[in-house]
Write a structure and sequence with these properties.
The complex is a heterodimer of chains A (243) and B (225). Chain A is mainly alpha-helical and 243 residues long. Chain A is 79% helix and 0% strand. In chain A, 35% of the residues are buried. Helix content of chain B is 85%, strand content 0%. In chain B, α2 packs across α6 and α7 packs parallel to α9. Classes of the chains: A mainly alpha (243), B mainly alpha (225).
Chain lengths: 243, 225
């Protein structure tokens, strides 16, 4: 088990293993997307209150989950990088940022598309919307900082510090805006007792969430491989691979 | 630790002295603070009723921007003349030395803002209770702004044009301070208790005092490598 992780942490083995994983992950992603969209768009009944337009949540909710997951994941990766100095962690984290920002943006856009017919407005300064918007700013700040620093390793370390500072701040932002103003509906899936959502709607939602997750991991592996090739272009194993 | 306190006070004294030798620059953030607040009655409306309502937010946003503006040069001079490198090499822990620098920065930028705030409260026709709350939130909040901002400054000190980038990095992190502080001032103006928000600000200050110096030191090490 541990030797597997040790091997995975070395760029050479990571490159080999991820190369084998990507086609499988990609196929699973496609399968999940097709089934999730099928159950979500054709099988799930219309909502008794919101009619058909609630279906946007099958994209909106997973995107919002991913936006938070990726940020936390990046923070974990950077903590790993900081403690054990595994450079692969930092490659994975810096490959994630742009996708995290895109998911955040997607959640905001789909949310406001849904908000117009439901709340009658594109945007309100509600707690969740505001904290999601700030999350987008945090991602953009990270991307701006990383792209402003020439040296890739310094950039990654500076960005890592910013992410770690930001992760301390995220719960604070979340609760401060929550107490400040709120309109968004409470959680319906992630609470501890039974979810207050019908199984016929929950199933496609979870399928879509899994699809998003697999999609992210597929792409992040592809991006990390590219990043790795660029950073390690002078190392022996790459010369061996490409002759 | 031997020599830690002398090192701390030497840096504090040096930074304060440097600031007082450039008295013109010292006044700039304060004028900036004052001018931003003046723009609101001109740009939004001179109606006292409305001004009283938006006053907490106006003054706090001006304070945020002034802090950002004055922070930009926190490490710049030391970076250019190489004394930052000496601090990194010194046997004393860097995280303590940066606290001296941040404290010096707060004394020359945060504290004067605190003194100027009652005047601004008067200009925007704030009730006296709200003015007191404003003073208290600024007293707790401005050191927070200096501490959090210093992390961003330390990250961007090696870059040629860090100014705009700094805004992007720091302002999102300032949001909780802004929310709790303006909330407290507004509540005080409406005659409601404000202890809750003040305790939160104080808790944030304690958190920043413990974690920010470590982060600033780490950021400086990254920028200088």
């Amino acid at each position: 088990m541990w030797t597997f992780f040790h091997k995975l942490a070395s760029p050479k083995h990571f490159y080999r293993i991820s190369g084998k994983l990507i086609p499988w992950l990609g196929a699973i992603t496609a399968l999940l997307f097709v089934s999730g969209l099928y159950f979500g768009l054709f099988k799930a009944p219309p909502d008794y209150q919101q009619g058909e337009s609630y279906r946007i949540m099958f994209v909106h909710v997973p995107a919002a989950w991913m936006s938070m997951f990726i940020y936390t994941f990046m923070a974990v990766l950077y903590a790993i990088h900081l403690i054990w100095n595994i450079k692969l962690a930092d490659v994975m984290a810096s490959s994630s940022a742009a996708m995290g920002a895109s998911f955040t943006f997607l959640a905001l856009v789909t949310g406001s598309l849904w908000g117009k017919p439901m709340w009658g407005t594109w945007w309100v300064w509600d707690a969740r919307l505001t904290s999601e918007l700030i999350l987008l700013f945090l991602y953009l700040g990270y991307i701006a900082l990383v792209s402003a620093i020439e040296d890739k390793r310094t950039a990654a370390r500076a960005g890592g510090l910013l992410i770690l500072v930001g992760v301390v701040n995220i719960p604070i932002i979340h609760y401060s805006v929550e107490w400040w103003n709120t309109l968004h509906q409470g959680p319906t899936v992630t609470k501890l007792d039974k979810p207050s959502i019908h199984p016929s709607m929950l199933l496609p939602l979870l399928l879509m969430a899994l699809a998003f997750q697999c999609y992210y991991f597929t792409l992040v592996l592809v991006r990390a491989r590219t990043e790795l090739l660029e950073r390690e272009r002078r190392s022996a194993w790459i010369k061996e691979l490409f002759g | 630790m031997n020599g830690l306190a002398p090192a701390f006070f030497a840096i504090l004294r040096r930074d304060l002295m440097l600031a007082f030798r450039h008295r013109g620059e010292l006044a700039n953030p304060l004028l900036f603070f004052l001018i931003i607040v003046t723009l609101y009655p001109l740009g939004v409306s001179p109606d006292p009723e409305l001004l009283r309502k938006i006053a907490p937010g106006v003054i706090w946003i001006a304070a945020l921007l002034a802090a950002l503006f004055s922070l930009e040069n926190l490490f710049r001079g030391d970076f250019d003349d190489g004394s930052l490198e000496q601090m990194l090499l010194s046997p004393q822990p860097l995280s303590v030395l940066v606290v001296a620098k941040v404290l010096a920065h707060w004394l020359v930028s945060g504290l004067p803002m605190l003194l100027l705030a009652p005047l601004l409260a008067l200009l925007l026709d704030m009730p006296s209770k709200a003015a007191w709350a404003l003073e208290t939130t600024l007293a707790i909040g401005t050191p927070l702004l200096s501490l959090i901002g210093a992390i961003g400054v330390a990250l961007t000190v090696g870059l040629k044009r860090g100014g705009i980038l700094l805004t992007l990095l720091i302002l999102p992190l300032y949001i909780p301070v802004l929310i709790f502080a303006t909330n407290a001032v507004a509540a005080a103006g409406a005659g409601m208790p404000v202890e809750g928000q003040l305790y939160f600000l104080a808790a944030l200050l304690v958190l920043a005092l413990t974690l920010a110096p470590v982060a600033i030191a780490a950021a400086l090490r990254i920028s200088m490598s």
